[in-house]
Design goal:
- By secondary structure, the protein is α+β, with helices and mostly antiparallel strands.
- The protein has one domain.
- The chain is built from 4 helices and 8 strands, in the order αβββαββββαβα.
- A 4-stranded mixed beta sheet has the order 4-1-7-8. Strands 3-2-5-6 form a 4-stranded antiparallel beta sheet.
- A hairpin with a 2-residue loop joins β5 and β6.
- The longest helix has 22 residues.
- The chain is globular.
- The termini are far apart.
Amino acid sequence: MSMNYKKRTCLILCCIQFFTYLQANDSLEPERTIIAGVVTNYSGDVVLINYCDYFSDESRSATNLTETNGFFKAEHEYVFAQNMTICFADKFINVFVHPGDSIFVNIDANKIRDDFNNAITFSGDNSELNKELSIWCEYSFELCV
């Protein structure tokens, strides 16, 4: 059997499986996803949460920490798993969310610039995955700079 034949067969089977899934699930319904957190030792900073949802006009949420005593919260509806970023103190914290997830992020403003890996803790859904993703993204960014 040629390699092209195998690839075509695999593609056709994947398409059939996908369309069967769509027929079984009449529509994909968005689910509310919550990202919340607190910044300890903050000093008048802003937290910016960037959504990567191509199906929505809403793309970001900003919270002035002075007005909220260091707490931030953003809710958004997702249909598919997405990557998001939390921008604080010129650092990007990458977060991966599935529809319906609830994630809490604790950021220590005193450590964020000098000890990034220990400045951020995650709890809630996918906390271990998000910790590893955040560390890996910061490491790869440092390699490129």
